[in-house]
Structure prediction request, 455 residues.
Amino acid sequence: MSNNSKRAAIILAAGKSTRMKSSKSKVLHEVGGLAMLAWVTNLARSAGVEKIIAVVGEGNADVRAAAENLGLEIAIQEPQLGTGHAVLSAKAHLEDFEGDVAVLYADTPLIKTQTLADVFAVLAKSADVAVMGFETQFPASYGRLIEQDGELVKIVEAKDANPAELAVKLCNSGVMAAKAHDMFAALGHVRNDNANAEYYLTDIIEIMRNSGKSAVVVHANEEEVLGVNARSDLALAEQAFQAHMRTQMMDAGVTLRSPDTTFFSWDTEIEAEAEIGANVVFGPGSYVSRGAVVHPFCHIEGATVGKDAQIGPFARLRPGAHMGENSKAGNFVEVKKSVIGKGSKISHLSYIGDAVLGEGVNVGAGTITCNYDGYSKHLTTIGDGAFIGTNSSLVAPISIGSGAYLGSGGVITNDVPKDALALGRAKQSNKEGWAKRYRTAQEKRKQKRKQKRDK
Ligand code: UD1
Ligand code: CA
Prediction:
């Protein structure tokens, strides 16, 4: 790349997405927990693009809102008369732009940063327009890339191709880049005299070559350029993403006990020498530190797991759960928006929400923070070294002092001072011999009933 050349991108997102059969626009469907439009935006930014224009249809209000949220400029294309027409609708945004522009599709989420960087890079070195192409055994309806002597001479849409062109297995991913000026100049000459009566972006290759410009193909993997048209494609994209993440994680030193059953989000971060058991799902915003073990069947989202912590099996960490170093959330434990201090243990069957636990706290089985009164959430704080007896209900807002001891089964409604014992349960009373008398009486009654029946 020439260091001083500016980069822009036009993301095409004006499609109708009828095949998704979805009330939500196609490009807002998620792969690895991130909308496809956001994937493509991240791709552009990671390849050094500063200015991004999303081309949306009049009917795609949801896409427009999402694009604005992502900080993109918006160009409206109405009606949709083809990919060339779509790019032209962004022209006003690039009138004064001196630099390279790439065209990306919002429904093609998995392109690697390096591949897009390569597309920009060849513009600085060896060509006036670069097209991202890929080899496939099933070229189907893709545009065919026709090369001669290592140069791209034209792109032919399948519907307009002759048998020799149809036999070509090098296909157009849809991504291409050129100087913005060159691209718009060429687009001005594109006509719609083709099988679809559309203005094809792909026609600019021949147009540019006819004015003495050169074109080349930059190769991508077939997997990267997978376009999503239907939910089955979305599933394929998800699969490809997960496969990629699993390999990346293991290469980075993370142990995956059963990689095919571990599911990541786009931003999942796990340090080397952490271990992830079978059937673990990571929602967005998760971080796992070195030495931590996530046992099988856990769901972790928006949570951090500290060094050497133990999670699960069957634990759920919800957004805002911060498990400290060497802490534990065992089976059937749910933690939400809570900080669990170093070495604190919640080993069985608990709900801890809106809580701050100090270090070395022991939370007994069945402990529940009663954090919600139907209107607001309330905070529970537990000091260092406190011992929370099994089956405690902590009615928040409440504060348990450090070193305090809570007897089992308490409904704790008042703050407990440091080092105190709190009992919040009904007093037990024993009635001597009661059970024996009860059984004898019942047995007698049973005998009588039997005698009556047998008569
Ligand atoms: C296009 C390419 C084809 C390539 C294929 C890769 C053209 C003429 N053909 O074909 O060479 O192999 O992609 O998938 O470019 N869009 C708009 N406005 C429009 C038309 C399309 O925003 O007026 C958007 C669509 O939402 C979609 C993308 O552009 O994201 C591609 O459009 P589509 O009609 O699917 O193009 P293909 O026929 O698949
Ligand atoms: Ca398509």
In short: The longest strand covers residues 328-340. The two ends are 105 Å apart (CA to CA).
